[in-house]
Structures are given as structure tokens and as C-alpha cells.
Amino acid sequence: MAGVLEGFGIIAFVILAGYVLGVSGVLGPDARRVLSRFVFFAASPCLLFTVLATADTKVLISPLLLVSAGSAIVVVVISLLVSRLVWHRTGAQSMVTAFASGYVNANNIGLPVAIYVLGSAAYPAPVILLQLLVYAPAGLVVLEHSRGGGSVLRTVLLSFRNPLLLGSLLGTVVALAHVQLPAPVLEPFRLIGGAAVPLMLMGFGMSLHGQRVLEPGSGRRDVALATALKLVGMPLAAWVLGGPLLHLDPRTLHAAVTLAALPTAQNVLVYASRYDRSVLVARDAVLLTTLGSLPVVLVVSLLLSPG
User: Residue 207 belongs to a domain with what CATH number?
Assistant: First the structure.
């Protein structure tokens, strides 16, 4: 348990450092955007490539992936039913709320949590791959359709331009092919990828400066639904699937529930902004779930950590 608390302390300190930099403005007005783009286009793809290329294939294809997919489906279905049938939201509005309910931040927050709490950066990799290959294209088809443009095939093909997906796919191919890359080839990717975790956390800390949450007209009910499903519903669904139903070993169950308790991915805000659909709902859900996920993950670790 001391390791868990130490891990959260490290994460919190780096986030705080980013917040202080954001408040001070010492890095200039474009600092967060530049950091975000560097992490998205360079550091994170390199990190995912090295993690997946050297990962045990049993982690890439494991019951953990089944639990992650199943728990996401449960909360997404609940969100869609409430949004469409009870509140009569449009398809695009319902899709954004569903994204906010079940699309986890397995990259910016998930990788640091996996490293410092679960002990391995390989745990979020299958989830990232599943979301980029399946969840994102499916949701983007709905959002694209809402503005009357773009075929299903075109939308799916465009998702393969995502650098996170490319890094994940290349690393997965290397791992499944059991290719041992020479150190001089792998080390440059490892060095660039090493910048991803601290910059992710500092960039998030900078993003907290100046936020106003739950403004009038921002879709408070939708935000509350997404936040509750993300922080409570999804971890509970993962525990039911991984524990009583699949009887995962304690370490894998702890990892599965921890991943389910991660906050809403910032990608959701990117998608909502891209199609101008429920932008405030996405923004507030990302912020609230990010702030709430750390205590939730800590409780999960207290209850389920094997050592």
C-alpha cells in the first residue's frame, strides 16, 4: 500500500508543478498546446511502441481486455438509453455523453497510473488499442453522420492517421511476430517516449488553471450522468465481470478495475469540439472525472491491491 500512496504522491506533485507553471504563465500562452501536440504526435506514440513491442503477448490478448471492453459496453448502453429514451437527446448529443461515460484516459492518466500504481506500463496498451480501433471509429461515424457528411468507410480510414494508433499497431505487430529489435533501434524511441508521462501530467496540471465547471446551460444532467457512470458504474461493472464472473487472479482484477476507474479521455473533448456537439458536457466530464478518479483509484487499490 505504501507503493500505491507513493505513486499517487508522485503523480499529484507533477500535476501540481504543471498547475503552478500554468498560473505563472512563465512558459507563455501557447505552452499547453505545444506540450499537448508534442506528447500526441511524438512522445506518446514512441512510448506506446516501445511498451507494446517489448510486452508479453499474454498481456495484449488477455481476459483484462475482455473485462475492459465489457465494462465500457455496460456504461455506454446505460448512457445511451437514458440520453435517448428518457431525456430525448439527439444522436450526436447522446454519443458525446456515452463517450464521456466509457472512453477512459488510458494514455495521459492511465500510463502514469499503470507505471506507479500497477507496476507496468503494458496494462493500458490493450485498452488504448481497443478504443482507437473500435470505440473511436464507431462514435465518430455517429458524429460525422450528425452533420450530414462523410461515409462510414472514410471515417474509419481517417482514424488510422492517428499517431497513437500507428504507434500501438506497429508495437503490437512487433510483439506478436516475436521480433527482438536491436538496442540501437529501440533506444531512440525509448528516449523520446520517456518524456511522455511527465509532460502528460504537467500539461494536465496546466489545463486546470482558469476552468469553470457546470455553468448554466452546460448540460449539467448529462455531465452528472457521465461522471457517475465513469467513476462508479464502470469500475463496478469491471469488478463484477472480472471477479464473480471470470474469476481473474488478484493482480489482473486489480488492474482491470483500476483501468475502468480512469477518468474520461481528453479525446472526447477533441471529438466534441471537432463536430461542435455537447462541447461543454465533454469539457466538464473530463475535468470532474479527472479530479474524482484519483480517490476512486486509491479506494480500488486499498480494496483490491494484492500486495
Answer: 1.20.1530.20
> Which contacts (CB < 8 Å, 24+ apart) does range 155-162 have?
159/132, 159/133, 162/132, 162/136
pLDDT band at 152 (very low <50, low <70, confident <90, very high): low
Please give the pLDDT value at position 248: 92
Spatial neighbors of 215 by CB under 8 A, at least 6 apart, are 280
Angle value at C-alpha 165, between 164 and 167, nearest 5 degrees? 65
Provide the mean pLDDT of the chain.
84
Hey, what amino acid is at 47? L
- Number of domains observed in the structure of the chain: 1
* pLDDT band at 298; cut points 50, 70, 90: confident
Q: Which residues, other chains included, contact 138 with Cβ-Cβ below 8 Å and sequence gap of 6+?
A: none
Distance CA 277, CA 287 (A): 17
The mean-pLDDT minimum among 91-95, 186-190, 203-207, 258-262 falls in 203-207
Domain, as residue range, for 62: 2-304
Which one, of 284, 293, 146, lies nearest residue 221 by Cα? Answer: 284
Cell reading at 85: 429514451
pLDDT at 73: 94
Region of residue 205 (left: phi > 0; alpha: psi -120 to 50; beta: else):
alpha
CB proximity list for 196: less than 8 A, separation 6 or greater = 39, 43, 44, 46, 47, 111
